[in-house]
């Protein structure tokens, strides 16, 4: 086996004693350990952070690139230097990100795979694209994902965990991959006696095996009816009546007729004065009122609702015949029907009705196979009995030099259970709760110098108070001398008028309209009140008019209206009495009203038989 080792671009292959690269499932970052003779330092001063690249092959020493990363640590040990290196995913650990992925404004739109790709490529400066990052879809989205001065690797790991996916780096393609566990299937077939050089020992694990399964779902509320005759039917005595389930609500009919038609009155001991029976729900019994009994030979019919579990028993007969019976009962609180229970049970049996299998293979050093942890690979063994021919997940991959083989641990447990155990919605809910709860993160992200360099002042815009008048007695106002009388006033609010203006006050008695909303737009407006472009767009003769901008805030005698005109010719007018009288004004000039009152409004009319635009209106000096 030929090899090439480069550190910071220098070929140090001649000084290599050995190297070992191992990655185990769950360990996202690959690690390699290299041993050099001491003289390697005479040509290259080895320090953490230097690049490390490793190739190997049979034809040439560059057939297959098996590692690309950085030195993590250097440990001199006598005449040997031990170098530990981590692959390029270490870049994600060494860099940090500060960004909020908000689904309402961010380009990722809450798609988890899009967030992952942006973290890796934009902030981690690594390579990934649509062929290596699998689409997580739009069914399950993250509303908000906060990164606050945290390393990129931790954030990527959080995204992988919430989907129960995996991510890794491949040196041969120089790409980062993000995909479901067992998503990729390697084209290579590992065959015992061919590229597997030693007959493996297969392990069959039945410790978690289930082939006779009872699925219990959440409790479903159902209505049922039970009936019997006092003294004749089992459980129907003069002292009590027993029912099958713990009731939620109960109706009892009882008399000498069959079926009974007399509805009995229920009550509570020491609470209800007049009643015939009471219910002991935990004991699932109905008792007569104290001092009374149910009449012998009377018929009773109990109509009640109860929370009944949804149990379904399922089994895999072939598995039972082959391995014996393995029984288990599982409960899922989110099951709401028998069909749900059957589907969940079928899925459970598919995962657990046969033993999990695993082994360790010693494979020839074959270049260009691209085998990596997390892939599925076909394994064929016709030597052992029973024969094996199935796809298994690579759980651990160990390569060494010098050595005659690679060591690959394969099995089916991890990927058979991966999707089954991934409660994605619950994980996303918990992740989003963590993000929303961490309010100090958001504050950190928008923090600027608000006192000197970038002063920020938050001002209220206006105060608008509405009122409703009482029109009758179908209302109760606690403490009111008329409408707060017990036995006279009635709870509820049906006798109220429609909402009307009580008062409107602009901040610092100055009204500014920039057309970013329609809060003060009157229905009499014919011009285009454009909140997208933030202007009032006029055609010939069209008008723009406001609702009350100042109401019941004192008598209005004067006002100054200043209008920013982008184009066109206009007639400006103000009214101090709610539009009963309009008075023409000049922009920027104080106006004294002939008709004073307490309801200030404005009106603008296009007067040039053309078009025009107004971008701002300011009305001041009216108080």
For the sheet with most strands, the description reads: 13 strands, mixed
Amino- and carboxy-terminal Cα gap: 93 Å
State the helix count. Answer: 9
Q: What fraction of residues sit in β-strands?
A: 35-45%
Mean pLDDT over the residues: 87
What's the quaternary structure here? single chain
Blueprint (SSEs and pairs):
Blueprint: E1 2-7, E2 10-11, E3 16-24, E4 31-37, H1 40-43, E5 51-57, E6 64-77, E7 80-87, H2 90-94, E8 96-102, H3 112-123, E9 144-151, H4 152-163, E10 165-170, E11 175-180, E12 185-191, E13 203-205, E14 212-216, E15 220-229, E16 241-242, E17 247-255, E18 277-280, E19 285-288, E20 299-308, E21 311-315, H5 317-323, E22 327-331, H6 338-352, E23 356-364, E24 376-381, E25 388-401, E26 405-411, H7 413-421, H8 424-437, H9 439-445, E27 462-467, E28 500-506, E29 511-513, E30 528-530, E31 535-538, E32 543-545, E33 550-567, E34 570-575, E35 583-585, E36 590-606, E37 612-620
Parallel strand pairs: 12-24, 14-22
Antiparallel strand pairs: 1-2, 1-5, 3-4, 3-25, 4-7, 5-6, 6-7, 8-9, 10-11, 13-23, 14-21, 15-20, 16-19, 17-20, 18-19, 23-26, 24-25, 25-26, 27-28, 29-37, 30-31, 31-37, 32-36, 33-36, 33-37, 34-35, 34-36
Helix pairs in contact: 3-4, 4-8
Describe the structure.
With 623 residues, the chain is mostly beta strands. The chain folds into 6 domains: 2-87, Elongation Factor Tu (Ef-tu), domain 3, CATH 2.40.30; 96-180 and 423-458; 185-206 and 355-421, Elongation Factor Tu (Ef-tu), domain 3; 212-218 and 311-352, no CATH class; 221-308, no CATH class; 505-620, Jelly Rolls (Sandwich). It contains 9 helices and 37 strands. The strands form 8 sheets. Strands 1, 2, 3, 4, 5, 6, 7, 12, 13, 23, 24, 25 and 26 form a 13-stranded mixed sheet that branches. Strands 29, 30, 31, 32, 33, 34, 35, 36 and 37 form a 9-stranded antiparallel sheet that branches.
